[in-house]
Amino acid sequence: MTVGVSISLKIPDNTAYTALVALRRLGVDVDRVERSEILLFDDVDADALLARITADETMFNPNKHRVSVLQSAKPSWGEVWIEPLSNPGRRAVAWRLYNAHGSPVKRPVLEMAVERLLCNPAIERAVTRDLFDGDNRNESE
User: Fold this and answer.
1) Which residues of 118-132 are buried (b: 16+ CB within 10 A; e: fewer)?
2) pTM of this structure
3) CB neighbours (10 Å) of residue 138?
4) 68-103 burial by CB neighbour count: b if 16+ within 10 A, else e?
5) What are the strands, taking DSSP E only, across 1-141?
6) What percent of the chain stands above pLDDT 90?
7) What is the three-class DSSP state of 94?
8) Where are the domains of the chain?
9) Largest separation between any pair of C-alpha atoms in the chain
10) Is pLDDT of 133 > 70?
11) DSSP code of 111?
């Protein structure tokens, strides 16, 4: 079983804000952007893993980070994980995009953001939820 961990900032995320401004300028209809680091581990105890991560000062600073175990080791709707092609499947940057109503953006908006800014296909790959479970729910509304 794969355990996913998200490490995000408690403090304002200037990188996410810069991405939000750039996406809007590129014509992507997005109201809020959140970013976190995703780490994936195989066959580990989630509680022991959290203890290890929070004790590692190179990964986690309690003054500025929050850490959580993901309910599922795959992106949520409205979220994309950007993985380096050099080391796929173990570490990624998660980008969660929200519309003006506070809901996750639909698939076409997410795809536009990935194509226009969030992923450099020469060195990265974009992973979305539908790659995991083949769920073809109507995201085009």
Assistant:
1) bbeeeebbbbbbeee
2) 0.88
3) 7
4) eebeebbbebbbbbbbeeeeeeeebbbbbbbeeeee
5) 2-9, 32-42, 65-69, 79-84, 91-98, 124-127
6) 77
7) strand
8) 2-133
9) 44
10) no
11) H
